[in-house]
């Protein structure tokens, strides 16, 4: 079946994605003591810092090799060496995560070779100890922030993981781009099965931590490097999100160390969460703990209670592909029909993944890959949707259509508490479900001439 690729307009207008190294910087922030470093122009790191700070509301240092006109013409090796020396001396990082920008990729800088030469040059320098230098190739004209994140997680594991004796209680969790609250919840669930999670990356503390007495250049938190080294000995890898393309951390661990890989959809909704819990039952050999089974029961009960408020509503869903797929599946199980969905990502698998969802009596939605908000606006005008579900960049479209926007994913920079938004598992689905139901009730109340007080 042909995939709907949006209009034939040659430029992106109001992108439904963010830049590729942004995702890499987020992933590098989830490794303990790791400093994200952009090889390219300073403006790129400023843009990425601003975007991530407005979502997480925490400070974020991203170093830059600070290209100028000369480096743009003659190459950025000298800038990279100077920048790395500077950050190693002043930040003393446990690792440096180096992501390339559009400019360094366009001029063809061979960063792997530059890093090898840097290591050789500094080998005799007693003042500088060289931590792992993790390189992710992230040209932003090819892919989205999600691809940059996936590539950076793959690079982290490829650089650091080691093999060894299989550890039956160790499980690699590769969570996709989720909130700090989601990361904490995933860790809690895995621990409740008696397993030790290696959650890579884990930015839950670094990007949602308590206030400091003194500024920390590299905040506490992140997956310990010693734990990532043990990834090759784990009983299994569970990758959440089944839309990544290119190399993945789960694939690398399977190829290099024979760690079995389980690739699941993002656990949003009862069915997708059931798959996540079933995977943990299989790895641990234990049944789902009672507290989680009880949460599932309460969630199903709330589906029944709220059915009359939401059944037959029509939704537009957009954002990262893994979120879109699971959200569409979740809406189908609660009786909301997705009429249009789109993502700025271009994995080529979005439509196929949506087509696999059990839609019940509903028509499948129109699916547009590689979409921008101009394309989405043109498509949305005819679908008579009741609500939109996606990140904050969809606000203008929601306003244009006069329908509410339920914010999920990243970025959420026009509401407070993005770090505490829970999406995953039975508990996260419950919170999302309540938000959707209440949003529709609020809208009904607002447009009613009667001013209902009892719904
Ligand atoms: S130039 Fe490329 S890497 Fe830099 S901010 Fe823009 S899209 Fe991102």
Automatic annotation (TrEMBL):
Organism: Crateriforma conspicua
Gene name of this polypeptide: nifK_2
PROSITE patterns per UniProt: NITROGENASE_1_1
Domain Nitrogenase/oxidoreductase component: 19-440
Upper taxonomic lineage: Bacteria, Pseudomonadati, Planctomycetota, Planctomycetia, Planctomycetales
Protein's UniProt keywords contain Oxidoreductase: yes
Known EC number: 1.18.6.1
InterPro entries xref list: ChlB/BchB/BchZ, Nase/OxRdtase_comp1, Nase_comp1_CS
Family statement: Belongs to the NifD/NifK/NifE/NifN family.
Keywords recorded for this protein, A-Z: Nitrogen fixation, Oxidoreductase
UniProt GO MF annotations: nitrogenase activity
Record-given protein name: Nitrogenase molybdenum-iron protein beta chain
Membrane-traversing stretches: none
């Amino acid at each position: 079946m042909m995939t709907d690729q949006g209009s034939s307009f040659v430029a992106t207008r109001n992108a439904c994605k963010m830049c590729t190294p942004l995702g890499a910087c987020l992933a590098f922030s989830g490794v303990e003591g790791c400093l994200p470093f952009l090889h390219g122009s300073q403006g790129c790191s400023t843009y990425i810092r601003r975007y991530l700070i407005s979502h997480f509301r925490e400070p974020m240092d991203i170093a830059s090799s600070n290209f100028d006109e000369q480096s743009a013409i003659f190459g950025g090796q000298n800038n990279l060496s100077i920048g790395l020396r500077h950050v190693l001396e002043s930040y003393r990082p446990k690792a440096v995560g180096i992501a390339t920008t559009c400019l360094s990729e366009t001029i063809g800088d061979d960063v792997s070779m530059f890093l090898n030469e840097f290591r050789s040059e500094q080998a005799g320098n007693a003042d500088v100890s060289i931590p792992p230098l993790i390189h992710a190739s992230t040209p932003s004209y090819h892919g989205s922030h999600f691809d940059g994140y996936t590539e950076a997680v793959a690079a982290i594991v490829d650089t650091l993981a080691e093999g060894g004796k299989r550890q039956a209680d160790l499980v690699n969790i590769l969570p996709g781009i989720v909130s700090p609250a989601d990361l904490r919840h995933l860790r809690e669930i895995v621990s409740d099965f008696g397993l030790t999670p290696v959650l890579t990356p884990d930015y839950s503390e670094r990007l949602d931590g308590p206030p400091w007495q003194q500024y920390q250049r590299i905040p506490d938190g992140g997956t310990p490097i010693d734990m990532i080294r043990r990834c090759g000995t784990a009983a299994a890898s569970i990758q959440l999100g089944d839309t990544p393309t290119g190399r993945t951390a789960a694939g690398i661990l399977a190829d290099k160390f024979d760690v079995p890989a389980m690739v699941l959809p993002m656990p949003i909704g009862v069915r997708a969460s059931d798959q996540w819990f079933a995977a943990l039952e299989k790895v641990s050999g234990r049944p789902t703990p009672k507290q989680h089974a009880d949460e599932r029961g309460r969630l199903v009960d709330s589906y029944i209670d709220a059915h009359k408020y939401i059944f037959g509503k029509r939704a537009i869903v957009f954002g990262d592909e893994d979120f879109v797929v699971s959200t569409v599946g979740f809406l189908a199980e609660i009786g909301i029909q997705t009429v249009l969905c789109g993502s700025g990502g271009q994995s080529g698998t979005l439509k196929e993944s949506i087509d696999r969802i059990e839609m019940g009596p509903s028509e499948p939605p129109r699916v547009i890959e590689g979409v921008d908000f101009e394309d989405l606006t043109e498509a949305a005008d005819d679908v008579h949707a009741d609500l939109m579900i996606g990140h904050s960049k969809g606000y203008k479209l929601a306003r244009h259509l006069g329908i509410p926007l339920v914010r999920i994913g990243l970025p959420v920079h026009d509401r407070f508490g993005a770090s505490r938004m829970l999406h995953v598992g039975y508990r996260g689905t419950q919170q999302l479900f309540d938000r959707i139901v209440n949003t529709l009730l609020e809208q009904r109340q607002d447009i009613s001439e009667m001013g209902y007080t009892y719904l």
